[in-house]
Design goal:
The chain is mainly beta. The chain is about 5% helix and about 25% strand. It has one domain: Pectate Lyase C-like (3 Solenoid). It is built from one helix and 14 strands; from the N terminus they run αββββββββββββββ. A seven-stranded parallel sheet has the order 2-4-6-8-10-12-14, with no helix packed on it. It has a five-stranded parallel sheet with strand order 1-3-5-7-9, with no helix packed on it.
Length: about 200
């Protein structure tokens, strides 16, 4: 369960941005707030109940970090390294994720719903109960990952490798797919049509 500190501006209702008092929209100095968020992420081994929604993060090395109940919703993530990191109940919905490395991560109960994901590696990862619903994923790889009970419902996949993956109970129901490889993956254990939904 996420327990964000609310924005200090009366009537706003949004969570405070990073460790600040207000959301990013109400930050008195937006650039300073973004710089402080980047510094906080790079200097900490873990983050819990923090919102980085709407952040523009580029070129950060966040490998080996632990993220619990954090929000990156609507963020722009470019060339960020998340290798060997742990994610629990984190949200990347609507984010723009370009040229990032999520390889060898351990993620559970996370969401990338509606995100635009390009040139990203999720290889050799544990991606359990992760939603990619409505995401546009291109030129990316999930090779040798465990995707147990994850969701690709109404997602758009283009030039994506899902090679040698565990697809048990994965809802693989993309809206559109082009040049997607499932080689060596156990596609027979995935849900690929509405007639075989798990109740």
């Amino acid at each position: 369960m996420q327990c964000f500190v609310p924005c200090a501006v009366d009537g706003c209702g949004k969570p405070a941005f990073a460790s600040g008092d207000t959301c990013l929209d109400h930050a008195p100095d937006r650039e300073a707030a973004l710089a402080a968020a980047s510094a906080l992420l790079e200097s900490s081994d873990s983050a819990r109940d923090l919102s980085f929604a709407g952040a523009a993060l580029e070129g950060l090395n966040l490998s080996g970090r632990r993220f619990y109940a954090c929000s990156f919703m609507g963020a722009s993530l470019r060339s960020v390294l998340f290798t060997n990191s742990i994610f629990r109940l984190c949200f990347f919905d609507g984010a723009l994720i370009d040229s990032c490395d999520f390889s060898r991560i351990d993620a559970q109960f996370c969401s990338f719903g509606g995100a635009t994901i390009s040139n990203v590696s999720f290889e050799n990862s544990e991606l359990l109960h992760v939603s990619f619903g409505g995401a546009a994923i291109s030129d990316s790889t999930f090779n040798k990952s465990n995707l147990y009970d994850s969701r690709f419902i109404r997602s758009v996949l283009k030039n994506v490798d899902i090679v040698d993956c565990d697809l048990k109970r994965v809802y693989m129901l993309p809206l559109k797919q082009d040049n997607v490889s499932y080689k060596y993956s156990n596609t027979m254990e995935a849900v690929r049509d509405l007639e075989h939904l798990y109740l």
